[in-house]
User: What shape does this take?
Amino acid sequence: MDKEKEEKINHYRELNRTARRGEIVCAGSSLMEMFPVSQLAQEAGCEKVIYNRGVSGFITDELLENLDVCILDLKPARLFINIGTNDLNDPAVTADDLMKKYDCILNLVEAALPQTEIYLMAYYPVNYEAAAEDMKECLRVRNNGRINEANEHVRKLAEKHGKRYIDVNRMLKDEEGRLRAEFTIEGMHINEQGYRAMFPDFLAYVNEPSWK
Assistant: This one.
């Protein structure tokens, strides 16, 4: 794990000392870390406490290694996970390979926090045509076909574990199923306008009654 990720984990560890247990936690990689979920929730009048523990660049192995800081220490009542798209940057990683790691994450969380309601989020689309030149090589591998295949595996994994699979991508997609050009920074990451567009769909899951 590089220095920037270590610093982020150390920062979260310190924040966890005074954080409330039993609240809502969001965990994942940069697409989660960049999601201004607490700010948008406050603006929407949502009184629920939401902690964002996303770490830019994280792959599933790194979340596994830091599960305590990113999830377990907070003992969330409800957990939203979006992890694995960085694994898909490697053409050698198959959807099956990815799901084995994701399955390990769920097994460990379930064992430690059996009452936590877990939501597995569909991976966000990308837009190769709107991508910056230095991003296009990555998006040839991490393309929407590969992402859609992985999402089907995530849906089946959620079903296997009795968890919720949710897709909040409706407002993010253009007519061809790509990340809308106006919502992306460089073809992959989502700008604030994009997060604001999808937030009402996400908030509906935050606010829904307990299903455990």
Q: What stands out?
A: The longest strand covers residues 24-28. The chain has nine helices and five strands. The two ends are 35 Å apart (CA to CA).
